[in-house]
Amino acid sequence: MKKINVVESVLKANDALANENRRRMDAAGVLAVNIMSAPGSGKTMLLEKTIPLLGPEQRCAVLVGDLQTTRDAERLGGCAAEITQINTGRGCHLSAPQVSAGLATLDLNDISFLFIENVGNMVCPAAHDLGEHLRAVLLSVPEGDDKVAKYPTLFQPADVILLTKVDLIGVVDFQFEKVYEDLSRINTRAPLIELSPKTGQGMDRWLAWLRQQRRGQTGS
Ligand SMILES: Nc1nc2c(ncn2[C@@H]2O[C@H](COP(=O)(O)OP(=O)(O)OP(=O)(O)O)[C@@H](O)[C@H]2O)c(=O)[nH]1
Ligand SMILES: [Mg+2]
Fold first, then answer.
1. Which residues lie below 8 Å from residue 189, measured CB to CB, with a gap of 6+?
2. Which of 37, 66, 135, 145 has its CA 20 to 30 A from that of 93?
3. What is the spatial distance between Cα 10 and Cα 30, in angstroms, rounded to a whole number?
């Protein structure tokens, strides 16, 4: 068997602007969560269900990245306090400059959570700090139980891993044990939450995690 490892160089300009984004959000008391996964894992649906469940006291804004269309922003328009779609054209990930431009469209002082839905991709988004505080990574059941081992750079820096679409267990072959075993070598720090935004299963654990992170930020 032949194998090639590709090591990406650190993007210094991106990181500098990411740190500036983080400073802006810290100053405004905003908690930013970068949501990453393959296309179609359910990032937008997760937000469609999460934001109403967080309740009106948690004002939520979303920056959503896609190559084309405003479809995700339209889906989220009904629940987010503020929503800005970023179209990346040919870009397969969001970058700190794009998020900086997105932040300029938001009233940061009026926001508790900023969810950044990254472009659906399992490689490039993880290599680009956007200035987020936390990284949430989704793996959906129909994608297959081998993806943690095959795309470790996405799962390694995750602060929480959402094993999603668990309502489809039984429809597709998927062994939780394989995911747990691969994560035991890659990331033992992040909690693993099994959930289905469609049915609501497991959403309480995800919401509790979000609220705990928010309390950690505000100290209340
Ligand atoms: N059965 C089931 N389907 C889901 C669930 N979550 C999302 N879906 C479906 O999965 C498909 C993709 O969901 P999206 O929310 O658009 O996924 P996404 O990750 O935002 O996709 P991109 O933005 O294109 O990367 C849609 O048909 C959703 O209805 C779930 O928990 N269970
Ligand atoms: Mg989406």
1. 159
2. 145
3. 26
22 touches ligand 1 (CB under 6 Å): no
Question: Nearest-CA neighbor of 200 among 45, 4, 56?
Answer: 45
**Per-residue pLDDT for the chain (220 aa), expressed as one digit of tens each?**
766 554 454 578 899 999 999 999 999 999 999 999 999 999 999 999 999 999 999 999 999 999 999 999 999 999 999 999 999 999 999 999 999 999 999 999 999 999 999 999 999 999 999 999 999 999 999 999 999 999 999 999 999 999 999 999 999 999 999 999 999 999 999 999 999 999 999 999 999 999 999 999 988 7
| Residue with CA closest to ligand 1 atom 3 | 165
> Quick one: angle between helices 12-28 and 96-103, nearest 10?
30
Q: Which atom of ligand 1 is nearest to the CA of 38?
A: 25
The answer to whether 135 and 34 are in contact (CB under 8 A) is yes
How far is the centre of ligand 2, averaged over its atoms, from the C-alpha of 76 (Å)?
10
What domains appear along the chain, each with residue ranges and CATH number?
12-214 (3.40.50.300)
Query: What DSSP line would sit under 66-109, residue for residue?
Result: ESS-SHHHHHHTTT-SEEEEEE-TT-SS--HHHHHHHHTTS-GG
- Please work out whether the CB of residue 85 comes within 6 Å of at least one atom of ligand 1: no
